[in-house]
Write a structure and sequence with these properties.
Elements: E1 8-12, H1 16-28, E2 33-37, H2 41-52, E3 62-66, E4 77-80, H3 96-113, E5 118-121, H4 126-135, E6 144-146, H5 150-164, E7 171-172, E8 175-176, E9 184-185, E10 191-192, E11 195-196, E12 201-202, E13 205-206, H6 210-231, H7 236-250, E14 255-257, E15 260-264, E16 270-275, E17 278-281, E18 284-288, H8 295-317
């Protein structure tokens, strides 16, 4: 069923990530209305007021909020950031058990309030959380998905663009698999101004050799750890990337984004949520595009899927 397109976006969890998403949406005009929910009433009221006080300087957007989940009722899109956050030195998968229980409890309640909503999980470890949420309700596969490697792919493109001395918009490339340590950089399909990475030259010199590719891929994987160590959380870039996902849903844009959704056989991968280039529209996460992979990329993607299967089994065992 096509989602109701009333433009209402609810954000569940107003910590640093939820607040950054709300702020990005407000500035970009991503939502017709924003509903903010958090269990801490004073905190969410303060964020609502702070955002409202800037209303003169942004596109019109109604903003409400509270500590009652009913504020999310009749949403077109619900963004979930609630849960324990990643601490310095902690992997995303270490967070799994606590946040899986939250997702399993929360998802049916959200859909009861907004039966036609698309629900996007940002909470880490996002692939395991998204899988838990999808298993907890009976809705079409794409209605629940995760932010996946949209941010990782942005980091990837930024690093390539910096080295090429070009605007990021000229770089196309994806990070796929887990949003985490086993993610895969698809170097074989990177395009820089239409030129494959292996053939790209700067001042006549090829700059994306194997060592450089390995270094950039490593920097992408470790980027979040560096930010968390320095400021306690990643929030600004995930705010912007989530706003972009919201715009793809709200505008029915059929935008290809590497979001995390339940895989059903592509590349021989099944019954796991991970990120692949996916058509995002008002109905949620749709068709997954089968990009040609090199043999190492194919093997890496399967290893990433296995890591996520193992993480889910570990959570199940308690």
């Amino acid at each position: 069923m096509t989602a109701h397109r009333n433009g209402k976006v609810s954000i569940v969890g107003m910590g640093s990530v939820g607040t950054a998403i709300a702020y990005a949406c407000l500035i970009r005009g991503s939502a017709a209305s924003l509903a903010l929910y958090d269990i801490f009433a004073k905190k969410v009221r303060a964020e609502v007021l702070d955002l409202k006080h800037g209303s003169q300087f942004v596109p019109h957007c109604r903003i409400s909020g509270g500590d009652d989940l009913a504020v999310t009722a009749d949403s077109q899109i619900v963004i979930v950031t609630a849960g324990a956050k990643q601490k310095p030195g902690q992997t995303r998968l270490d967070l799994a058990a606590t946040n899986v229980a939250m997702a399993q409890d929360l998802t049916p309640r959200l859909l009861e309030l907004s039966p036609h909503a698309v629900i996007v999980f940002v909470t880490n470890p996002v692939d395991v959380i998204t899988y838990a949420a999808a298993q907890s309700v009976d809705v079409p596969r794409g209605r629940i998905f995760g932010s996946g490697t949209v941010l990782d792919s942005s980091r990837f493109r930024y690093l390539i663009a910096e080295l090429a001395d070009l605007a990021v918009a000229n770089v196309h490339g994806f990070i796929v698999g887990e949003h985490g340590d086993s993610e895969i950089s698809l170097w074989s399909s990177v395009s820089i101004g239409g030129v494959p990475a292996a053939h790209f030259r700067k001042d006549g010199v090829p700059i994306f050799d194997e060592a450089t590719q390995i270094a950039i891929s490593s920097d992408v994987v470790n980027a979040a750890y560096e930010v968390i160590e320095g400021k306690g959380a990643t929030n600004l870039a995930i705010g912007l990337s989530t706003a972009r996902i919201i715009e793809a849903i709200r505008g029915h844009q059929h935008r290809v984004l590497p979001v995390s959704s339940l895989q059903t056989g592509i590349y021989g991968i099944d019954d796991v949520c991970l990120s692949l280039p996916t058509v995002v529209s008002a109905d949620g996460a749709g068709e997954v595009l089968e990009i040609p992979l090199s043999e190492p990329e194919h093997e890496g993607l399967h290893a990433s899927a296995q890591a996520l299967h193992a993480a889910w089994e570990s959570v199940q065992k308690g």
